Amino acid sequence: MINISQATPQAPSPPYTERRTSGRAGVLALALGAFSIGLTEFAPAGLLPSIATDFAVTAGVSGWVVGSYAIAVAVGAIVMSVMAAGRDRALVLRLLVGLFVIGNLLTTMAPNFGLLLTGRIVAALCHGAYMGISAAIATDLLPPEKKGSAVATVFSGITLAIVFGLPVGSFLGAQLGWRSTFG
């Protein structure tokens, strides 16, 4: 009888430098996701006048574009994290990104203010769970001594969204219309 483990030897693991390079790329990809989430969260602040005009609502009502997102982040962080518990983190992360994209597409194409808010809420539901799961995955991608750096890199995506993404998003929104920023 043939021992299957002897008949099909496993390929040797790639050299450490190769794993380290792919790990860094993975952490940077997670940071890019955090950047996108941060931009989606904060960009409307510079776009509210355009949104109010486009949907013929008051400036105060347009503020719900920001408020609805914030409320949905708080609720979504709890609900999505509970739903994700015990599941494959990589799969959950992919599903969260997919839901986030759907929410932003709905926001971008919203024909009325109600659907705009719906899109914002859908995108926001992913925010908290994405940040937690992406931080956990990032720590698995780099060696133990780099775990802190991995988490810091992921969270730097939100900081970069505020510092660089928000002004660029506001500029694009002013030049090409607010929908371009979400697109």
What is this entry, summarized?
With 183 residues, this protein is mostly helical. The protein is built from ten helices and no strands.
Strand/helix succession: HHHHHHHHHH
Q: What's the helical proportion of residues?
A: over 70%
The amount of beta strand, in percent, is under 5%
Largest sheet: none
Name the average pLDDT: 88
Compute the separation of the termini in Å.
Answer: 60 Å
What structural category characterises the helix and strand content? mainly alpha
* Number of beta-strand segments: 0
Q: Report low-confidence residues grouped into runs of 5 or more.
A: 1-18
Describe the structure.
The chain contains ten helices and no strands. It is mainly alpha-helical and 183 residues long. Helix 3 runs parallel beside helix 9, helix 6 runs antiparallel to helix 7 and helix 8 crosses helix 9. The longest helix is centred in the last third of the chain and has 30 residues. The N terminus is likely disordered.
How are the SSEs ordered, and which strands pair?
Layout: H1 4-7, H2 16-42, H3 44-55, H4 59-62, H5 64-84, H6 89-109, H7 113-125, H8 127-141, H9 147-176, H10 178-182
Could you name the key traits of this structure?
183 residues, mainly alpha, 10 helices, 83% helix
